[in-house]
Design a protein that fits this description.
This protein is of the alpha/beta class. The protein contains nine helices and 14 strands. The chain has a single domain, classed as Spore Coat Polysaccharide Biosynthesis Protein SpsA, Chain A (Alpha-Beta Complex). Strands 3-2-1-4-12-7-13 form a seven-stranded mixed β-sheet, sandwiched between helices. Strands 5-14-6 form a three-stranded mixed β-sheet, with no helix packed on it. The longest helix has 21 residues.
Length: 263
Amino acid sequence: MSLKIKILVATHKPVSAIENTIFQPIQVGTDLNPTTIKESYLVDNTGDSISEKNKTFNELTALYWAWKNFGDYDVFGLAHYRRFLDINYKVPFFKKEKKDIIKSVSISDASFLKLNDEKKLAKKITKFLNNFDVLVAKPAFCTINQEFASISDDYKHNHIASDWDTCMDVIIEKFPEYTNSIELYLNKSNRFYIANMFIAKKEWFISFSEWLFAILLEVEKRIVPSEDPYQRRVIGFLSERLFTLYILHHQFKLKELPILFVE
């Protein structure tokens, strides 16, 4: 039996041309900007939702909506309106593999257009998930001034340090079994899985969401978001680091793929 695959594409503007039933655009922050982008798009403010939190939660308002309201699927994924996992990527046999994690493409690029082949795409995802727990973006490696920087140090350098400390306190309070993993994967490692992009089976997605939002909704209560529009995205920034912590703590078998960035 074939798996029903749904990849939500979080967006606040029209999505680049992918036309199949696997990729489903969802308008995020709909409570803050109720103008409908397109009638065929889902919106993140129906049912149990946190659409009004989009300025701090970013694409997580789509993730939360899917967790609470979107049940008709076997495999779930999250993409962004200009960023997609390169599911058709092949490791070169005779050339050294590029270290770049993001490939800039146009909407006419062959690697992007291949995402429109629904049958092959479904077959490829199904095959991957028979061998891996989750499909993720290739990791970035944090540096400060071109020197090694742990995920923790990188966050504190680029964002608000007290928010990070609050988040770590909440994790240890709610999930003390992660204490050693925080030290190992956040305080001593610079391996960073960016962008909250993944594809996994439904059970994996639900378990991850339960863990993630238990932490982030509590963190939200304890911090005061910055007035700076960039730093106000605090919950979204924290979530990328928590995604990294979650997949490394559980030692999931990962299929790492480049990101296609549509210019």
